[in-house]
Amino acid sequence: MSILVFLIGLSIVVLIGAGVVLFWAVDHGQFDDMETPGLLPLADADAVVPPDQARAATPAHAAPDEAR
Fold this sequence. Notes:
By secondary structure, the protein is an all-alpha fold. It contains three helices and no strands. It has helices at 2-27, 36-39, 51-56. The longest helix has 26 residues, at 2-27.
């Protein structure tokens, strides 16, 4: 029976925590723009990457372009 008291108290604490997180997210603008994130995958992904950034993004296991 004492476990029920513990679980009810724990559920109330979790509920209050979820409410605090929700109000924090609303206050910090997390829900201001609900349309753009859904459209981002549809955007053109053929962006031009400068050569210096492309070389830095190459994985370590890839073959080097030139001998150093």
